[in-house]
Amino acid sequence: MITDGHGTPLAVLLTGGNRNDVTQLLPLLDAVPPVRGRIGHPRRRPDSLFADRGYDHDVYRDQVRARGIVPAIARRGIMHGTGLGTYRWVVERTIAWLHGFRRLRIRWERRADIHEAFLKLACCLITHRQLRSLC
Q1: Which region, left, alpha or beta, applies to residue 29 given φ > 0 means left and ψ of -120 to 50 means alpha?
Q2: Would you list the DSSP string of 10-48?
């Protein structure tokens, strides 16, 4: 899942349950829709990628850089304290919110389109709850 800095999902890639996360990194980056903002050509890529030690491979770092994205990936064998957890917390929090919906905690749906529909509905409900708390 790719989120903006506030936890709003920008791109979600739905795969089978037994897929390694790192193999889906590049298809997920390619699935990012255009980001609306200032007038002109919309951005197609995020500025940077924050990831944990599971993505610490030079091959993936190079492929992320080739897409014009700055990789901020934690290194294996190095102590914590890089500050990456500050940004990753947004993603972890969003996933925890999605797991609050029992239907999404474990994927029971065989069809990907139905599961994705429930996922999008959950994102709408999460957004509605956040907006309601601001008013």
Answers
A1: alpha
A2: EE-----TT--GGGGHHHHHHTPPPBP-SSSSPB-S-SE
Integer Cα distance of 121 and 127 in angstroms: 10
Confidence bin at 18 (pLDDT 50/70/90) = low
- Total tally of structural domains belonging to the chain: 1
Domain holding 99, by residue range, is: 2-134
- Prediction pTM value: 0.57
How confident is the model over 91-122, as pLDDT tens digits? 778 878 888 888 887 777 788 888 888 888 99
Annotate 19-45 with b (16+ C-beta within 10 A) or e (fewer). eeeeeebeebbeebeeeeeeeeeeeee
pLDDT of 14: 60
- Strand, helix or coil at 50? strand
Structure tokens at 79: 């102590």
